[in-house]
Design goal:
This protein has 60 residues and is an alpha+beta fold. The chain has a single domain (3-59), classed as Ribosomal Protein L30, Chain: A. The protein contains two helices and three strands, in the order βαβαβ.
Length: 60
């Protein structure tokens, strides 16, 4: 499976509790923090919920 790199680019202040929990579950605490994951349906769903707060890069 392909790997994706997720980077937090915006603050979670003003976001819902569910969105904050999703960011923490992805391992993104501070702005510009990054994490790499396998591109699974679960991870893509989490990214979709916080897409306005993160950027995604596909790795090979």
């Amino acid at each position: 499976m392909a790997k994706i790199k997720v980077t937090k680019i915006k603050s979670s202040i003003g976001s819902t509790e569910r969105q904050k929990a999703t960011l923490l579950a992805l391992g993104l605490r501070k702005i510009n923090s990054s994490a790499e994951y396998e591109e699974t349906e679960q991870i893509k769903g989490m990214i979709r919920k916080v897409s306005h707060l993160v950027s995604v890069e596909k790795n090979k």
